[in-house]
Design goal:
Belongs to the LysR transcriptional regulatory family. Keywords: DNA-binding, Transcription, Transcription regulation. The protein is built from nine helices and eleven strands. The radius of gyration is 23 Å and the shape is globular. Strands 3, 4, 5, 6, 9, 10 and 11 form a seven-stranded mixed sheet that branches. A two-stranded antiparallel sheet has the order 1-2. A two-stranded parallel sheet has the order 7-8. By secondary structure, it is α/β, with parallel strands linked by helices. It is 43% helix and 24% strand.
């Protein structure tokens, strides 16, 4: 019988196009990917890949095997999930991806609740950017993931994935308590013209969103400082009086000399969702995790309100 690990490797190679990308997606080394492909070729008695310049491509037989194998792997996972679901109890191990504030604000608080209510379920995590996380779920490297999209950008999912919204997370302008806007009940886009900002790196999702705030005004934000972590951005706020656009979920504790002032437009928010493969739709573990994180998000929303 065809080895499912080798088959999954072939399907991933067909989708991603290179041994390096396949290795990164599956968490293997390039040598391990090559070994799986060679093992599959030996078992079938014919090559499933062939050299093309510096890379490799699937042979006609390899492409047909990948096409049919992808459906078989999906059916196999669906069968396993349905069998596990018979008890109705979350059990086994799942790996959940996420971005930093989603992990801190939703997954971490859910873990004690999961441990108390579902002691036979083990949850591990993986942190990465949303685009990478979607690829990891699609490839089967992780089981589910927290992802987000700003209103100004849509979240594109492969047909094999489904998602459900957990919460809509607003962002505030974080500033020093001595800033001239700190006493405002809320601020507008116009209020932010000419103000100095600290931002996530160029082309990061949060940087694109900050830039989008000024597009309706035909302007750009004045960004003088750059930092990946929100903790570091807050230190810039304290030290040099810069402003920072910081979402509420998973926000670090604000020091006494820093305040968060809401934006006047509630649509300036990010939608946070959980995504998973359709073949795992019957999983009690996924359903339980989703329920717990929604409860945590609802509690946080009531506090913010």
């Amino acid at each position: 019988m065809i080895d499912t690990v080798a088959l999954r490797t072939l399907v991933a190679l067909d989708s991603l196009g290179s041994v390096t990308a396949t290795a990164e997606s599956l968490g293997y080394t390039p040598a391990a990917v090559s070994h799986q492909l060679q093992k599959l070729s030996r078992y079938l008695g014919a090559p499933v890949t062939e050299r093309t310049g510096r890379g490799i491509a699937l042979t006609p037989m390899g492409r047909e095997l990948s096409r049919r194998g992808a459906g078989l792997l999906e059916e196999l996972e669906s069968l396993e999930t349905a069998a596990r679901a018979q008890s109705g109890e979350p059990r086994g191990r799942i790996t959940v991806g996420g971005f930093s504030t989603g992990i801190r604000g939703l997954l971490v608080p859910a873990l004690p609740r999961l441990a108390a209510s579902a002691p036979e379920l083990t949850v591990s995590n993986f942190e990465e950017e949303p685009d990478e996380l979607i690829e990891m779920v699609t490839a089967g490297r992780i089981d589910a993931s927290l992802v987000f999209g700003w209103d100004s950008s849509s979240l594109h999912l492969p047909a094999t994935l489904i998602s459900e919204t957990i919460t809509v997370d607003r962002a505030d302008i974080v500033m020093h308590r001595d800033h001239h806007l700190a006493a405002c009940t809320e601020v507008t886009r116009s209020d932010l013209l000419g103000e100095m900002f600290v931002s996530a790196p160029r082309n990061a999702v949060c940087h694109r969103w900050l830039t989008a705030l000024f597009e309706e005004l035909g302007s750009k934000p004045q960004i003088d400082y750059w930092a990946i972590e929100y903790d570091t951005q807050i230190e810039f706020v304290r030290a040099v009086g810069a402003l920072a656009l910081v979402p509420r979920l998973g926000r670090p504790h604000l020091p006494a000399d820093v305040v968060a002032v809401p934006l006047d437009d509630p649509s300036i928010a990010r939608t946070i969702s959980l995504v998973w493969r359709k073949s795992m739709s019957a999983s009690p573990a996924i359903a339980f995790l989703l329920e717990e994180m929604k409860a945590i998000a609802g509690k946080a929303d009531s506090i913010d309100a």
